[in-house]
Amino acid sequence: MSGEYVAIIVDDLPEERRVEICRIGMEITRHLVTSAECDIPWEGRNEFPPKVLAAAEHLRTHFVAPRKRDQDYLQTGIIPVDDDTWAHLLIFAPYAYDVTCWSETGIDVISLADEATSIVLWLSSSDQEALARIIGNERLQPLASR
């Protein structure tokens, strides 16, 4: 699979726009994602918008061991990503401290940190062009190969 890692520059944006751009980038790479992991900072659930809380609750219920569900900081572990899981992950991911999504071949396609203040995607040239058309090429910073 040909591509490169690209950071999306969002540090100068308000939260609402950062969340939107994060989700756009995730959607561009969805076709590659087969597994993922994320944390759920459950202690902050009262500050989540209602749809984000519902998505977090779904991930918590389906992917966190029952004995750990009441802890303040939760982790899903590595999970398979079907369309239903993707829908919830897409809503919640910009509010997580850590999200990684992998391709079938093990490439980390999406890497998010610190409530989507750090966004790195593995993009083919066509995916990068599509993303640039939506958010602007000035927001994309190719990174050295890892």
Key phrases:
146 residues; alpha+beta; 4 helices; 34% helix
Rough shape? globular
Rg of Cα set:
15 Å
Provide the residue-averaged pLDDT: 96
Structural class: alpha+beta
Oligomer: single chain
Residue share in helix: 25-40%
What's the number of domains? 1
Tell me the distance between the termini: 14 Å
Low-confidence spans: pLDDT under 50, at least 5 residues? none
Order of helices and strands: EHEHEEHEEEHE
Report the strand count. Answer: 8
The major pleated sheet works out as: 8 strands, antiparallel
Discrete helix count: 4
Q: How much strand?
A: 25-35%
Structure description:
The protein has helices at residues 15-29, 50-63, 83-92, 125-135, and strands at residues 4-8, 33-40, 74-75, 79-80, 98-103, 108-113, 118-123, 140-142. With 146 residues, the protein is of the alpha+beta class. It has one domain (4-142). The two termini are 14 Å apart. The relative contact order is 0.28. The mean pLDDT is 96.
Summarize the topology.
Blueprint: E1 4-8, H1 15-29, E2 33-40, H2 50-63, E3 74-75, E4 79-80, H3 83-92, E5 98-103, E6 108-113, E7 118-123, H4 125-135, E8 140-142
Antiparallel strand pairs: 1-7, 1-8, 2-3, 2-4, 2-5, 5-6, 6-7
Helix pairs in contact: 1-4, 2-3
Task: Describe the structure in brief.
The protein is of the alpha+beta class.
